[in-house]
Amino acid sequence: MTTPQLSICHDLEALLPAYVEHSLPAAEADRVAVHLATCPSCQRQVSQLRALTDDLDAALPEVPRTALRANFMAMLEQQKALLAPEAAAVSAPAPAVAKVVSMWPTAIVNNWLRIAASIVLVAAGVLLGRQLPWGGRSSGGLAVGTAAPTTGATPDGLAQALEGGDGRSVSASNRIRLVTNSTKETEPGDPAVQVLINTLNFDPNTNVRLAACEALYRLRADPRVREALVHSLPIQTDPNVQITLIDMVVAMRVRRAVPQLQRLAKRPDALPVVRAQAEAGIGKLI
What we know:
Layout: H1 4-13, H2 16-20, H3 26-36, H4 40-59, H5 66-91, H6 106-130, H7 155-163, H8 172-182, H9 192-202, H10 206-218, H11 223-232, H12 239-251, H13 258-266, H14 272-285
Helix pairs in contact: 6-12, 7-9, 8-10, 9-10, 9-11, 10-12, 12-14, 13-14
């Protein structure tokens, strides 16, 4: 027969992880604190959860903020723009003093340039993706030059703000700010979590999808988040988002992600660094 004390423990057990992470609403946190004062069993669970959180914090490196990743992408675009005139100058015909025939066809040179650019981009993505705050540390918002629309207090308000309810398109930088700021008004269990999941899966901009990843990680106490991250793995095609999702499910110990990681590790269209990261993730989860 279940005693009243055991019934209370059972009801509050699901709230303990969020209580340890200080993500519960004030009323729920007070309720848990009152129960813990008289329940040794739940006290032990809280101690174990805190020890696990400390271990994860120690294992995961400190990381750059979202702004750094966006600044890197902006810098990359600037470098590409600077290289364009130089490439045009190289391809311009030389004066008719002497004709030098290149040993390397233009197509081969262009292919090597593409390969080199891909390696640099993916390497930066691996570095920044590994260093995202998948250990409970918060990430600051992205500073942009124009004011972003307000999200409102409802999922419809956030969705309309992201899509541009007045018929005007919302820039990627403003969508990043909306997604980042949404966690200030959203708690685990809020319907707005589904809007963030949809943004992760369907927004056309890579940086916006990465911002949605971070926002969902901060709301990881919501049971929908783990399932959403697992289901998003086969949807994503950008290597930075793929690597970020792999690191997140590994940090959260989502073992049901293993089948999706196995498929990703064998996907012929995935970059080698992504397949290697998926294989490493499988080894950590099994």
